[in-house]
Amino acid sequence: MSNILVTGGAGYIGSHTCKALKQQGFTPVVFDNLSTGHEAFVQWGPLVVGDIQNITELQAAFARYKPLAVIHFAASAYVGESVTDPEKYYNNNVTGSLKLLQVMREHACQQLVFSSSCASYGLPSVTPIPIDHPQNPINPYGHSKLMVEQIIADYANAYALQATVLRYFNAAGADLEGDIGERHEPETHLIPNAINAALDATQTLTIYGTDYPTQDGSCIRDYIHVADLASAHVLCLKKLQTNNDKKGFMQAYNLGSETGFSVLEVVAAIENKLSTKLTRKIADRRPGDPPQLVADSSSIKNELGWEAQYSDLPTIVDSACQWAHQELLRKKSL
Ligand code: UDP
After folding, report:
1. So what's the pLDDT on residue 244?
2. Which of 113, 177, 290, 298 is least buried, going by the fewest C-beta atoms within 10 A?
3. What pTM was computed for the model?
4. Is 141 considered catalytic here?
């Protein structure tokens, strides 16, 4: 019995992690309300359609599958939307996590890998951002992730929860075998939007701000290949499983490539790959966007031996373009 409950396992990062779990001998049991996830992305274990805000649905999933541990992705994750609709973010991300933790306790399930975010840092005072950098989020999404981190730390102390918190930088790219990839509706992320504009001459890429205090004026982000994120989750899970101590703890790690690329550099890499010029429009800054976010991922490298394998920009762009081509064919066949 090696069931791992993966909330949000039908989503982008969740589905890639399910594939990696299966490859390492676990059975990923996806718990997802399919509000943003896709049934077609659940290919490596059973799907339970349920909502983390629904205690009864959570209890039924735990009773049936008796998971050894939980990897918790399910969350609302659009920074811009969190500014205009914070209630949704506090309900889904904070209340939903509390309910999940309650049902974990009821079922004596004590191990958790939690999907957090570099948005929990806010405006960093140093770059790359070390794991012990103060966390002062600047948008409700970041606040909601930080609140859950704090809840996990308190539960670790009081109820012996054993947890790893992964603060991701910008997840990007797609499965190298083309099984799964990024499918957001609406799509707000830079790489898929830029590829779509490059492949479809009727589309325009909006660039949010070229007046930032960066080299070319556009925002700098640290893009990490989704397959590298997935491998980190499995590594953390295995580490939790080998822990024989019954004491609770919470360990946090940053997950990034440690290299920053500006929006304009990413656009140029995509134009280069697809041998085209895309139509672009320069717009105002997007609310909630810090100028620069680059990870210092040294703690997970040093402590767990994790290394990014696919997070160079060409591999990210190649796999994202391959997936975008597949998606175009799929949409045409509908
Ligand atoms: N961005 C952009 N145009 C888009 C989407 C994103 O200029 O259509 C910019 C965005 O303002 C940010 C960077 O690209 O500076 C990365 O944004 P994304 O939404 O991909 O990830 P985030 O950093 O918000 O998690």
Report:
1. 86
2. 177
3. 0.97
4. yes
